User: What shape does this take?
Amino acid sequence: MKRLSWILLLIGLSASAPKIPAGMVKAHKITFKIKNAGITVDGSLSDLKTEIRFDPKDLDKSELRASVAVATIKTGIKMRDRDLQGRKYFYVEKYPQIKMVSKKIKDMGKDQYKGTFALTIRDVTKEVEVPFTYTQAKGIGTFKGNFTIDRRDFGVGSNSIILSDNVKVFIELTAEKRD
Assistant: This one.
């Protein structure tokens, strides 16, 4: 379940039009899903901080950076949220942020992109590929993407016969375009 927090970090992958500072982000939504005892657990993260430079016509100069506070994880059960923030999972006291930084962005055609990101959870950094869409209307850019990670790759929890290793993360972000 704590994996959910790191998923939030992934949301940071979202970007917007040329150089959009954190204050220009209009809205964001970071959610995740993981199976626990055969039941899908839904969660979310908030307090997203971003640095976005995104230009669909110049992807080599585009950069997406994001971080999210692990302490904002919400699954609908406060006791579970506290457990996820503890040492066994995200260890929020020592590793308070999940971070994501773009390394490469490829145009896949028709508003579709694939980003390679360095994702850091619990001081472990791994590359993840994130397919996402980017659309723009009236100066507002919208990013939507999702990806799956293995929580154990980041030291979140241990082997479990009831908790899935795979966490699906969903990110949506809207930001004002800035010239």
Notes: The longest helix spans residues 3-11. Helices lie at 3-11, 78-85. The chain has two helices and ten strands.
